[in-house]
Design goal:
This protein is an alpha/beta fold. It folds into two domains: 135 residues, Four Helix Bundle (Hemerythrin (Met), subunit A) (Up-down Bundle); 198 residues, Translation initiation factor eif-2b, domain 2 (Rossmann fold). Helix 2 packs parallel to helix 4, helix 2 runs antiparallel to helix 5 and helix 3 runs parallel beside helix 5. It binds 5-S-methyl-1-O-phosphono-5-thio-D-ribulose. 5-S-methyl-1-O-phosphono-5-thio-D-ribulose binds next to helix 2 and strand 9.
Length: 358
Amino acid sequence: MPGGPQESTSQDPWSLSFMTLEWVGDIDGCLHIIDQTRLPQHNQQRILKHPADVIEAIQQLAVRGAPAIGVAAAYGLCLALRGCDQIDQVRALWQVAIAPMRQARPTAVNLQHMVDRMNRVATSPSCTDLDGVSLRNRLLEEARAIEAQDQHFCRAIGAAGAELIQDGATILTHCNAGALATAGQGTALSVLYHAWQNGKRFRVLADETRPLLQGSRLTAWELQQSGIPVDVICDGASGSFFQSGEIDLVITGSDRVAANGDAANKIGTYTIASLARAHDVPFYIAAPSSTFDFSLENGAQIPIEQRSEQEIWSIAGGQRPPKGIGYKNPAFDITPASHIRGWITEAGVLQPPFEAIR
Ligand code: MRU
């Protein structure tokens, strides 16, 4: 891999040809994202100038992945105050922006955590007497701090998990938990980047991840740029790879981890965790503390996003199915803690009750 991930504050310190998201300018600036709905055919930017643009991008999965949508939402709230200097108006616009941003998607808790963190700053006693411009500067500073913290978490997760990777191993991953899903170098993929940088050589199997193909469109593209060998497999094929003994380790990201360790992740994750358990292959979740929700006892309490049926049938030539055929499209499932060997966090590889990050 040319260069490999280094200690740095930027997202793409090695050879990636994209920036997942970037705030450009000062308090009147705007948010640039790579439009992930267009990848890998088109490496195209979208410029977001209003909170509604950010909400739309989050809902369309133009910006996606639990940590990335948390950072995008923090900047999205700053966009609500663009061009406004009067403190009364700034506070009024802020109040209106909070709820829709917080509700843009339901499952990844990073979104709610980061909106709440921004709101705590806006309503803190230290900001009570600020004028409009000073408050806006303070809020942009907080959004930048959220982005920098996510980059730090990604590097620390990579360092914590790299020792789990054996030379010559085959590692299965699902969805995309890479640089495209964070402001840094990813969670599950950060572990792979660190191991590769440390001289380990291995190959990756990427589930294609129906219906939106985050595995074949995004993970394979991202790994290829880093020089890590990757083969895409159909979601339904992983069972046969477990059966033939080809998979040594599974690492995925998560959208929300409950207090007992149950983890929500992209639909299909529970299937591969169950297969891993049946074949005695270790299954790890890689996620920062910002993805943990200690207010929920277990995974049954995690809200699961239901998405449009069109995502299922549009891949088959975009043809509408005959009337009367039903579709169900839950975007996430819950992997029970019993199926998870360890939770790779910025504070190390942890077990419930996760004392180090509470
Ligand atoms: O619907 P998506 O593409 O936002 O789903 C993303 C995932 O499920 C990721 O695995 C998860 O957010 C972890 S990203 C570091």
